[in-house]
Amino acid sequence: MKIFSEQLVNEACAQSHVANLSHATIGETLLVAQYLEQKTGIPFVRMDQGSPGLPANHYGIEAEKRALDRGVGSQYPPAAGVRELKEAAHEFVKAFVNVDVSARSCVPTTGSVAGSFGAFIATTQRIPGKDKVLFIDPGFPIQKSQLRVLGIKWKEFDIYPYRGEKLKAKLEDELKDGDVAAIVYSNPNNPAWICLEEPELQVIGELATKYDAVVLEDLAYFCMDYRRDLGHPYRPPYVPTVARYTENYVLMLSSSKIFSYAGQRMALVCISDALFDKHYPALQQRYHDAGVFGSTFIAEILYMMTSGCTASTQYGYAEMLRLSCEGKINFVEDTREYERRANKMKEIFCRHGFRVVYDRDVTREVGDGFFFTLGYPGLTGGQLAKELMYYGVSSISLDTTGSRQEGVRACTSRMRDELYTVLDDRMRQFHDDHQL
């Protein structure tokens, strides 16, 4: 039996102005779940929004307090970022990725959302005729929303059938027209939690160089592939990255998940030095500046968006990065709770007839972490997302992420110990009500 009636769910959709629950965005799903929870007092199992479910790192908090006590709140921060953060970012990338990006090429942004927004502008304006973005999907839906705002066209393909050796031919087919300015993906992946392996990253890097496309590598879930012993500074294994295979890259490093610092909206874009210093006549003509990628990105684009990032938060992020390099913060162990949650949640769902949709990387089973994907026999992703709402479980359909597979995205961040029994009971009832 359903927890919430169709009438009540329809009421929630109407009150929240959600036209189609089967294909609702993250924000729309969140509104419907909140309405139902507040209306009835019945707790939801919230798998919709990828907001951190752990306390913010206290070292960052204390460093911010000290910065404010020093008086940084009275001055505008430099557009390129405070020196302490830029230097800490350079060292952090060296320690955990084993890639050299100079401090000047590490630029703070108000979250990776701002970083990708600015990068989409800069990359699609640098060369006439290169004006499209290629998404290696599934991916973060917000980034396509950004392109809608900007009026930038895009291409996309679901990587599910193109893993390993199949990736090169598919990627080359997408790039051969020469109109792709940037390639974007997340690794580990939001929503599928798949991880691109080194040979795949090599293919992406080499083709990015061949076709002069800039790779925007979103590392929001940095070192969160818990199958590998990552997170030890200056010691292999290092985080896999396209930066080993091309100079056309921008790495996006967010503080939101690895330090649970989402509320402070702080991230970094780490641009390869070669790209940072590259001159583009089209940028020079548009902005009447030197036309150098890095300086145009900072002064003409990012500054127009946010006028710099909050000074105290920059010092907080710098402290967390610095202490990580010194081995005093083990952010991988701090976030490993997501692995434990995913393992428990998957076991419950699979015991009641569900399956993991994106279940493998090239050489091994997909790991447990912040996200995972679920399918159910006989239901499309949209149908499953809607049906789960009746049983007090909120998620989003995979088709909203660019996926061509039928299923939903599940996030572990809001799971609580007392909800495992609740989830088990509800999914047992779901299975009883949805026998093939």
TrEMBL record:
Q: Would I find 4Fe-4S among this entry's keywords? A: no
Leader sequence segment: none
What this protein needs as a cofactor is: pyridoxal 5'-phosphate
Q: What is its EC number?
A: 2.6.1.1
The family database entries (Pfam families) matched by this protein are listed as: Aminotran_1_2
CDD domains (alphabetical): AAT_like (cd00609)
Point out the coiled-coil segments of this chain: none
Domain Aminotransferase class I/classII large, chain residue ranges per copy: 61-296
Gene Ontology CC annotations of this record: cytoplasm
The alphabetized UniProt keywords are: Aminotransferase, Pyridoxal phosphate, Transferase
Report which superkingdom the organism of origin falls in. Answer: Bacteria
The terms under GO molecular function for this entry are: kynurenine-oxoglutarate transaminase activity; L-aspartate:2-oxoglutarate aminotransferase activity; pyridoxal phosphate binding
UniProt-listed PANTHER family: FI04487P
Which protein is depicted? Aspartate aminotransferase
Q: What is the lineage of its organism?
A: Bacteria, Pseudomonadati, Bacteroidota, Bacteroidia, Bacteroidales
